[in-house]
Amino acid sequence: MEDPMAPPKSQPAPGPPPSSPAALITRVKEFVKNYMSQPHYDASHDYNHILRVLALATHILSTEQSANPSTTYDPTIVTLAALMHDVGDHKYRPTSVPPSGSEDPNTLVKTTLMDLGAPPSQARYVQTIVKAVSYSHEIRDPARVRGVLLQHPELAVVQDADRLDALGAVGIGRTFTYTGAKGRRTEDGMQETIRHFEEKLERLVGMMKTGEGRRLARERTQRLKVFKGWWEEENAMLMGMDR
What are the backbone angles phi and psi of residue 88, rounded to the nearest 5°? Predict the structure, then answer.
């Protein structure tokens, strides 16, 4: 029997209180804003792109929650994944030094979120989504993406939002910006960028996962096709000319 007069036993010091979703999102936004301002990122992949994807994801989420009430989405996960989806993007990683430690793209999102106050389980969940967002990843391993979607329905929302920002007027501007920033110069010049419309961008509408994503993708793909028609019309006079 314990002596009621004995001094109380010492307890381990409590850790920091768990971060509220709003406070965590504020810290993540600040981190991403600074991260995307690094000089090796360009205007096709900058903080404005992140904000557009976040706005689209928020819109798609609201629509899907109304249309599919049986599917449970975590709005905080959607927001965090939209904000972090380009952190560690392979297109902008230096190729001369292999990634290691805190810069490992396979864990960078998770470790960053934990450093900013996210619970480990939440950070792992977002990392899994971010790794499955990209077009190239789905082309390489569509079965894995389907598997992630079954366990992480938020992926469909964020993935559609990111792909929508590659379409329409904004997508046209981003495509030319990316090509110019990467310094790609070929004999065909800007025509190479137009071919990218057919090789990738016009295929995105068939890869959308949500009803609202497909609806918006159809609209924006039509804008791509209209622009391409104008391009071909204005370049028609080059046909048959000696180069």
Answer: 80, 15
Cα gap 82→92, rounded to integer Å: 18
The label of the residue with tokens 């996210």 reads 118
Q: Return the top range by mean pLDDT from 38-47, 60-69, 87-96.
A: 60-69
Q: Which amino acid is at 93?
A: R
Torsion angles phi and psi, residue 235, rounded to 5 = -100, 0
Sequential DSSP letters for 101-150: GGG-TTTHHHHHHHHTT--HHHHHHHHHHHHH-SHHHHHH-HHHHHHHHH
196 contacts 189 by C-beta, under 8 angstroms: no
Let me know: does 71 contact 64? Beta carbons within 8 Å: yes
* Cβ proximity of 60 and 154 under 8 Å: no
Total Cβ atoms within 10 A of residue 36: 20
Q: How confident is the model at residue 214 (pLDDT cuts 50, 70, 90)?
A: very high
E-assigned strands of the chain?
A: none
Of 50, 33, 24, nearest in space to 116 by CA: 24
